[in-house]
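ugh ok fine here u go
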Amino acid sequence: AAPTPRPAIATPAPTPAANPPDERARLQQEAARVELLNGTSVRGLAARTRDKLQAQGFRVTRIGDADRYTYTETLLIVYVDKPFTRELSVQRMGIKPQNVRVTPNPKASADLRVILGKDANR
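structure:
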């Protein structure tokens, strides 16, 4: 007796993979200059934060002290909008939406200024 032929199994057509863009490459492409200022009394917070952000591909161009050491929440001041870097900064540093301030200034020494508050020392 001849074997019974099996129906062919339909092979689905390959679909293009949805590759999310490489964050590091997008950060480099946007080339946002990020300034970190320590707004707390925690010594070395800006340097530690810089090291973490640079390891993730952020371009931190300056660190220093803020005008005071009593910031309870981290602020993001946007001088030149670099949308990908802005949104990734908000996400990675847990910056609340109400603490993002847009103050256009194309002549600023940084595109984004982050003033680290006590909430950054987690």
